[in-house]
Amino acid sequence: MRVYLAGPEVFLPDALDIAAAKKRICAAHGLEGVFPLDTPPAAPPADRPYWMRIYLGNEAHIRSCGALIANLTPFRGPSADAGTVFELGFMSALGRPVMGYSNEGAEFLARTRDFLGAEARQRQDGGWEDAEAMGLEDFGLADNLMIDGGIEAAGGVFERFEAARARRWRDFTAFERCCERLQARR
Question: pLDDT of 81-97, one tens digit each?
């Protein structure tokens, strides 16, 4: 089964090395990993802007795969990368299996409170809000309930692993658990 490997690792200087490592793990579990930087199955139209060609190439990759594993480790804030979340939702809408993982063990509320700092305040009812009085999610989940819920509703799992900060983009423990679970579903 071809598996789309969604995640913000594409922004790292060693993205292709990470792709190769993930593809080796996939192969060890009888899966074929497809990384966003791989050549798309069909070349996007050359007359489109570069950013749109990237989008169309990634959409083509997603459509060519039977499942998706998303790296949902918090990216530039307390939540997962927005592009990765879009890809996960897109694959889920296609009715195909999705798995997610995070190399951050803390719950979404704790990360959001840390991110907001003094702007996070406790309400009289015990809940939390930001400086604009918008409530903070407190469900004990890894990320926003739509991410955790979407994975679970699709029959997938959201693996969490507390990786050392210096290795958070290069620790594949939770990723491999997703591969194992996906392979076991086949």
Answer: 999 999 999 999 999 99
**What is the torsion angle, in degrees rounded to the nearest 10, for the CA atoms of residue 41, residue 45, residue 48 and residue 53?**
10
CATH of the domain spanning 2-105+142-185: 3.40.50.450
Cα 53–Cα 94–Cα 73 angle in degrees, nearest 5:
70
Tens-digit pLDDT profile for residues 93-121: 999 999 999 999 999 999 999 999 999 99
Q: Which of 126, 40, 111, 46 is nearest to 75 (CA)?
A: 111
Amino acid at 142: A
- Report domain extents, the chain: 2-105+142-185
CA nearest to 136, candidates 148, 120, 125, 149: 120
